[in-house]
């Protein structure tokens, strides 16, 4: 990036600072407006400030754009951003759009947009970085790339022309699930569904787990049954159960039948419990080992990158079988305790038997008290035969206790003082 030309895709995630060097937020998009005889003008940045709030920062308040950081005057209106008519979000709406060269040499897809400073506090679209269709049918072939000015290309404005979401997905590839969820929800409805359809099953599952249930249902409703079932397979069982319970009963049953049998069995089991009980809050995929397993084996399992941190904080010890419902529950080994012993140490000799598990019928309030009293991040759940059926993690409890709209609340919003009656309605 130079001082006067910046490619927008590289701005995504850049930190915004005030003149004193204090962090204001991160850039999520660039807003432009079209003009009749001149290139599109940049009107401002969409910045995410603490509390996940998206706000508008006028380009006139940007004093410097350098590699990896943006300096502003520090005067920012924290009112939530609302897109106005005629405004276009470059990353969300422009990247991936099909264009035609005005000289008749063919079509291309916009992969990036360069904005240039044309005067003090005045920025406009300078060039488009575009890719032409590949000339070969080989799966390894790629189309040639080129730079084009605003006058050299013409955008397709017909509603029937579907915009590619591939470039947008690539731009958001490094976002954490919570940030990806917020980014998806910030897109126009049609664009959000288009991007959701192009995301991989596991990536979409991660994002859905971070969304309010109404938005989860909306996106899943737009997906075909087979794709929706594949996404549910990749979700944590407790999150999948919460989502299935919000669907019409007939579609929920169809999706359960299309899911992998083992995943569907876990979801059906969770749906059988009341939402305000340990059984209704738990996940059925804890780390489970035998008493003869070693510290080295346990550490190898909890190192897996796909394992949520709360589940990796402890290993449950049971008799065989080692899939819920397991054999008799014996105890738990916290990962910090494992770090104090040699790799060959048997887990059975260092497990904690002082913490009593809760039953699946235990109330959410009881589980909360146990987690708070003993400074835990998870508590084991057993059935009437003392077999391990799952664990309740601290994030499960927080999701239950916080207001249903907590994801959309901000630091300056008031927090509801009543306790909700659970995320998931009881199923007959």
TrEMBL record:
CBS domain segment(s): 282-349, 351-408
SMART domains the record matches: CBS (SM00116), MgtE_N (SM00924)
Keyword annotations of the record: CBS domain
A Pfam family: SH3_actinomycetes
InterPro entries: CBS_dom (IPR000644), CBS_dom_sf (IPR046342), Mg_transptr_MgtE_intracell_dom (IPR006668), MgtE_N_sf (IPR038076), MgtE_transporter (IPR006669), PRC-brl_dom (IPR027275), PRC_barrel-like_sf (IPR011033), SH3_actinomycetes (IPR058838)
Coiled coil: none
Keyword Membrane part of the UniProt annotation: no
GO molecular function: magnesium ion transmembrane transporter activity
Annotated region described as Disordered, given as residue ranges: 409-428
GO cellular component: membrane
PANTHER family named in the record: MAGNESIUM TRANSPORTER MGTE
Protein name (database record): Mg/Co/Ni transporter MgtE (Contains CBS domain)
Organism classification: Bacteria, Bacillati, Actinomycetota, Actinomycetes, Micrococcales
